[in-house]
Specification:
By secondary structure, the protein is of the alpha/beta class. It is about 45% helix and about 15% strand.
């Protein structure tokens, strides 16, 4: 393994990095020539990963290309508890079956970014399942920390002060994540800035186990498409790595201008010098942010799909959003009314517009569809709809638009 130049180190340790604990020691480890074991864990709480996850995975890939060993931890136990980080309330526990199903899709998506052949995948259940980790182990693990230590954590302290419940299982979460570091003998743990407490618990547990404490590599949290909160599936402000090209392109184009540079730095390989040029050009008004945002969208779609897909997605965006044309290949939804039986009479059962939008997959639920209507985010044949009308009022051939990029064409039998 070759010794890194100052330029290589800067690229590795500065771009897209918030803090390293301990940077000086990590540099020595990198320059020693010894392959390092790099840990990053993911809780398969949902079926897909998004660009927020990609930030860390891209950094792992950079280390991987230098010959270091990536160890992905599938948190099939911590996912059942749910990470308390940033939470105001305890969330429901997932079942083992739900976690297993989600983990299967996670694996496919991880390897869109990191090299599968150079990655070690470990499931927490290998050491936490029944028989491998008993009650005596739980007692021994919990005895190493105090309640006061955990209540000093910001989100726990806030919830405790506000009288919100904190489940005992949530105290177990950072202990379980930290114990993962002991089991795989991690040299470096990667995580977002909201993971510093959990990662530091890992350092402490390793020291208690007689191991060299891991270094902690913290990266900024990617703000979601709403421009306010961190990217999250549960908040719906995400760009998924499996989003179709046009959808990925369109979502990227929807971000506010202040997020363009962070997205370029964290999600692309665009050179620092070019990003600096974009930043300066937008700041002094010489460069239209829309042009830079198109470059960002092109980079993302090309990385996850292809250059041809990026070109087609750009054309689709220009037609449907910039020139307000509708896509030629939009999904077709047939509405004829279902036939139900009431006594001896055939009764035509009609849906509301919100039900139609939900059933067509343009909203996660009927309640969300109703909110979109109330927020004036739904158009029928180019006219904004403000009330939840019956499908009987929708003519054959009508086009329903939800948000900026989602369309369906109505066909009546």
């Amino acid at each position: 393994m070759k010794k890194l130049s100052d330029a290589d180190l800067k690229k590795l340790l500065k771009r897209g990095v918030t803090q390293i604990i301990n940077e000086e020691e990590l540099v020595k480890m990198l320059q020693s020539g010894k392959p390092l074991r790099l840990k990053q864990g993911f809780d398969p709480s949902f079926t897909d990963i998004h660009m927020g996850h990609v930030v860390g995975l891209r950094k792992l890939r950079q280390f991987q290309q230098l010959g270091h060993q990536v160890v992905l931890i599938v948190g099939d136990w911590t996912a059942r508890i749910g990470d308390p980080t940033g939470r105001s309330l305890t969330r429901p526990m997932l079942s083992a079956d739900q976690v297993k199903f989600n983990a299967q899709t996670y694996m496919e998506q991880f390897f869109k970014i990191v090299d599968k052949d150079k990655t070690e995948v470990r499931y927490q259940s290998a050491w936490f399942d029944k028989g491998a980790f008993g009650l005596d182990d739980v007692i021994r693990l919990t005895s190493k920390f105090t309640v006061a230590q955990f209540l000093a954590r910001e989100d726990f302290a806030r919830r405790y002060a506000e009288g919100h419940p904190i489940a005992i299982t949530e105290f177990l979460y950072p202990l379980m994540q930290g114990y993962d570091s002991v089991m795989i003998e991690a040299d470096v743990e990667f995580g977002g800035t909201d993971q510093v407490f959990n990662c530091m618990v890992g350092r402490q547990l390793q020291e208690m186990a007689g191991l060299h404490p891991q270094q902690v590599f913290l990266m900024p949290l990617l703000i979601g498409t709403d421009g306010v909160q961190k990217m999250s599936k549960s908040l719906g402000n995400y760009i998924g790595v499996t989003d179709p090209p046009a959808q990925m392109y369109g979502k990227t184009m929807s971000i506010n201008d202040g997020m363009i540079i962070p997205y370029l730095e964290l999600l692309t390989d665009v050179p620092d010098e070019e990003i600096a040029h974009f930043s300066a050009g937008m700041a002094d008004g010489k460069l239209n942010p829309m042009a830079v945002k198109k470059r960002l969208a092109q980079e993302l779609v090309t990385d996850f799909w292809s250059a041809r897909d990026a070109e087609e997605a750009a054309g689709e965006f220009a037609r449907t959003v910039q020139h307000r044309e509708v896509p030629e290949d939009m999904p077709v939804v047939e509405i004829a009314g279902k036939v139900g039986i009431t006594g001896s009479l055939d009764v035509k059962v009609t849906r509301t517009l919100s039900a139609l939008i939900s059933d067509a997959g343009l909203a996660k639920s009927r309640s969300e569809a109703r909110r979109l209507i109330e927020q004036k985010a739904v158009e029928l044949n180019g006219q904004i709809i403000t009330e939840d009308i019956s499908e009987d009022k929708i003519d054959n051939g009508s086009i329903i638009k939800v948000g900026k990029r989602r369309f369906i064409r109505i066909v009546k039998k």
